[in-house]
Amino acid sequence: MPSTPEKPQFLLAAPSSGSGKTTLTLGLLRALARRGLVVQPFKCGPDYLDTHHHTQAAGRPSLNLDLFMASVGHAQATYADAMAAADVAVVEGVMGLFDGADRMRGSAADVAEQLGIPVILVVNAKAMAYSVAPLLFGFKNFYPGIRLVGAIFNFVNTASHYHFLREACEDVGVEPLGYLPNNPAFVIPSRHLGLSIDTAIQYEAIVEALADALPQTVDLDRLLAVTRTAAPAAAAPHTTVAACPAPRRIAVAQDAAFTFTYHRNLQALARLGEVTYFSPLADAALPPGTDFLYLPGGYPELFAEALSANEAMRASIAAYCAGGGLAYAECGGLMYLGQHLLDAQGQSFSMVGALPCTTSMVGAKLTLGYRTVAWNELTVKGHEFHYSQLADHGLTPAPALITNAKGVAVPAPLYRQGNVWASYVHLYWGENSAFIEALLAGPAPVAQPE
């Protein structure tokens, strides 16, 4: 029986957020892809901003590995399935290495252990020299279920500074793999809890600059060598999708205003019907014959003026919803279906008007956390992340119980207005699409003319 091939695969983690692991991840993805390698990116946790950037840097869809929203088996199958066609896997961690929803449960360390892949620690060494030794020793030895094999240092400006860091690595048995200098050209501005998606930022130029610089100070050959690990056997994902009695024509909003999607969710939708993508910013109407509309999250507040100015699209969606069209909108999608959207300065922009509510960015306040939605004898998990506030002008909440990671009820209703469903929660149905299937099994929507 042939042995399982070895491939370079590793999880990039950090002692804490703000260490620069996303920036380093993007540079590594592009630098390795330049070598002709098929590089598969992954992201620990529920983040949909970093996966967007990963996809652009690597040229392959980045996949979420989240041990709260999905099972260990699903994460392992997702990883093995995508890794089968790749030469190298780069998994970006979340927060600090051991930070999970409950102690280290669901943390980057948990993911590394479940996948059996080594860890590379990214350390912000701006104000640190040999004192990094006890930090590395602690992260290496704290939990025996992971293998911390190397370190890359960020914000290191001189070779002499790196010399002290390299000595610390050698004294604690962690391979020193190089450093990234502090360079303004490498900075991608942050927005809320992730990197910004502002279209004015020259992302491609930043990623290219990172890929140019990394091979000068990071030993990529050694990185690939020390992280070679037996590749997992490809397996069918642990996904439950029932056969649809009749093909559905599914319209999914996808443009600069609506980018917060989980790739596995989109794959599940593709198994339930024919998926067509459209742009609420640029298109004049919904795709012909739409009978299920999915409006994912995003940053509609950044594009409020353009969304409002596209009156033809707003009218098309409003007519679809008023005619009994089946729709599911989450977070940014909910904001778009409301009556008005107020930006941070209080300027009001007309939205679709399918839902009796207004959302506002005035006095923005963060709402964040894992969510479990229990509805109609179904349980589906997701993640809530928004700064906008909702003014309810007659929304109808569905009989659902929404709780946080600790099981405590939270005010994040699942709304229903006719055949339009909406919530601030970004749901994950990539493992089990029973929630979406239940919506599709409801009252038949009125199809739009061809």
What can you tell me about this protein's structure?
The protein is α/β, with parallel strands linked by helices. It has 2 domains: 6-230, P-loop containing nucleotide triphosphate hydrolases (Rossmann fold), CATH 3.40.50.300; 248-440, Rossmann fold (3-Layer(aba) Sandwich). The chain is 29% helix and 26% strand. It is built from 13 helices and 24 strands. Strands 1, 2, 3, 4, 5, 6, 7 and 10 form an 8-stranded mixed beta sheet that branches. A 6-stranded mixed beta sheet has the order 12-11-13-14-23-22. A 4-stranded mixed beta sheet has the order 16-15-17-20. The longest helix has 15 residues, at 203-217. The radius of gyration is 23 Å and the shape is elongated. The termini are far apart.
Distance from N terminus to C terminus (CA atoms, Å) equals 55 Å
Number of DSSP helices? 13
Identify the CATH class of the largest domain: Alpha Beta
Strand proportion, as a percent range, falls in 25-35%
Question: Unreliable runs, pLDDT <50, ≥5 residues?
Answer: 191-196, 237-242, 444-450
| Gyration radius over CA | 23 Å
- Give the beta-strand count: 24
* Percent range of helical residues: 25-40%
Secondary-structure topology with pairs:
Layout: E1 6-13, H1 21-34, E2 39-44, H2 49-58, E3 63-65, H3 72-83, E4 88-92, H4 108-115, E5 119-124, H5 132-141, E6 148-154, H6 159-172, E7 175-180, E8 190-191, E9 194-195, H7 203-217, H8 220-226, E10 228-230, E11 248-253, H9 263-272, E12 273-278, E13 292-295, H10 304-309, H11 311-322, E14 327-330, H12 332-337, E15 340-342, E16 348-350, E17 357-360, E18 367-375, E19 378-386, E20 389-392, E21 400-403, E22 414-417, E23 420-423, E24 425-428, H13 434-440
Parallel strand pairs: 1-4, 1-5, 2-3, 2-4, 5-6, 6-7, 11-12, 11-13, 13-14, 14-23, 15-17
Antiparallel strand pairs: 1-10, 8-9, 15-16, 17-20, 18-19, 18-21, 19-24, 22-23
Helix pairs in contact: 1-2, 1-7, 5-6
